[in-house]
Amino acid sequence: MGIRRSVVLLAVAASVLTPATAEAAPTGGAWPHSVTLTESSLQGVHGTAPDATIRNVLTVTADGTALRIRLGNPFGDTALAVRSVWVGLQPSTDSPALVPGSNRRATFGFRRTVTVPPGGGVWSDPLPLTVRAGDHVSVSVYAPGSPINAHIFPPPETDTPGSFLSAGPGDAGADESGAAFGAFSPGNLWWVDAVSAVSAARGTIVALGDSITDGYNAFGGGPRWTDVLAERIGKLPPGRRLSVANAGISGNTVSVQPNPYDPTNQCCGPPAPLRLDRDVLSLPGVRYVLLLEGTNDLGGGNYAPPAPASQVINAMRTIAAKVHASGRKMIGATILPMCNPAGGSKEQARLAVNEWIRTSGTFDAVVDFDAVLRDPADPTVIRQEWRNDCYHPNAAGDRILGESIDLSVFGLPEPAALPLAG
Q1: Who has the most CB within 10 Å: 42, 119, 174, 411?
Q2: Residue 414 has what pLDDT?
Q3: Is 66 in contact with 31 (CB distance < 8 Å)?
């Protein structure tokens, strides 16, 4: 009886995370072999929820069971009052219909409703669901009148992450047929920022970045570079695999400064050092952090001037120190070309930051994305066939980035180098 009571108390305690408890338990609680299967970092508050249900859809990057869902209210001035959450499996974003019999009602400390205070987050209790890498997980949330803490992942992506919104009024979370829901909205997620599970995967890689990691403007219909990386790792034997969590936010900065594009800071998330705990260190199973940021700092905008190289370097050094202090490995990625004139102050700052990334020894390993995508004839720009605009690769460029990463930086062999069975 005493053991049963202890288990129940542990589950309740692990279920609700305030910012303080999330920081105190960076591995995400006491569930054994728990890893983060997918992530979509929240950016800001975008209005108030109508009397309708949002069916969020995310794709997992590793096999797992006993799924847990995290809901967040990091930017709300009022509480997130969740009346119901349903979690199921979705065959395709072409339809809001779920796999028959897969929909489960989530609980939080064994209760079907939960209130998340401003600045807080909450993990569900484990759900009796099993997924394989590449499966779509549907999280239907009914929280009318609550502040919409959202991740806005701009089109042209047509695949996950994304969501369907019911016509309302009322709770449509139990609807497996999908009849209550409208068309798919690519990139629009409310409140759901992570999915974890018990898994044979060795741990999780978190990609901390800006729009290049988020996949903005990756025209061509292909996956983001983080998805390509997850595909490659998924070809390894189960015991060697790692999951991949995408913590990219379009417009994000690596240094603590005013956002160059939005004085309200609702478009682009807090600067990377300020969101490091919530978006990286509080997640279950994190073993590696891959940092690709700095473009927005160095480029500047209407609300912030271009940052000097020293500002970006100091921010990266701060992030790496905190990641290392938590016991994780830190991978640095060089900053892509930005179409700035050779010899100009912006290009000189980018080159200085990249040289520091390559040579400072701050990182456990370096992936040289600049060298991979730059045009040999003009290293201030991305190669024409791999770029959408001055800052962003297209889908072909994203695939090149994902395929260019040497898996040994994560302690992994290349799939082709594995011995043949038999």
Answers
A1: 42
A2: 73
A3: yes
What distance in Å separates the CA atoms of residue 153 and residue 383, rounded to the nearest whole number? 24
Rounded distance, CA 262 to CA 268, Å? 8
CB-CB contact of 40 with 110 (8 Å): no
Q: Which conformational region is residue 313 in: left (phi greater than 0), alpha (psi within -120 to 50 degrees), or beta?
A: alpha
Does residue 198 contact residue 64 with C-beta atoms inside 8 Å? yes
Mean pLDDT of 2-22: 32
The candidate with the shortest Cα–Cα distance to 290, out of 360, 348, 205, is 205
Any idea which residue has 């799939």 for tokens?
A: 415
Q: Which residues of 115-131 are buried (b: 16+ CB within 10 A; e: fewer)?
A: bbeeebbbbbbbbebeb
For residue 288 the two structure tokens come to: 């590696």
The pLDDT value given to residue 33: 82
- For residue 135, give Cα distances in angstroms to 62, 131, 314: 9, 6, 39
Nearest to 215 by CA among 394, 406, 404: 394
Q: Identify the sign of the CA torsion 144, 145, 147, 153.
A: positive
pLDDT of residue 159: 73
Q: What is the DSSP letter of 77?
A: S
d(CA 334, CA 186): 29
Report the chain's C-alpha Rg in angstroms. 21
Span between the terminal Cα atoms of the chain, in Å: 50
pTM: 0.90
Sign of the alpha-carbon torsion through 92, 94, 100, 105: positive
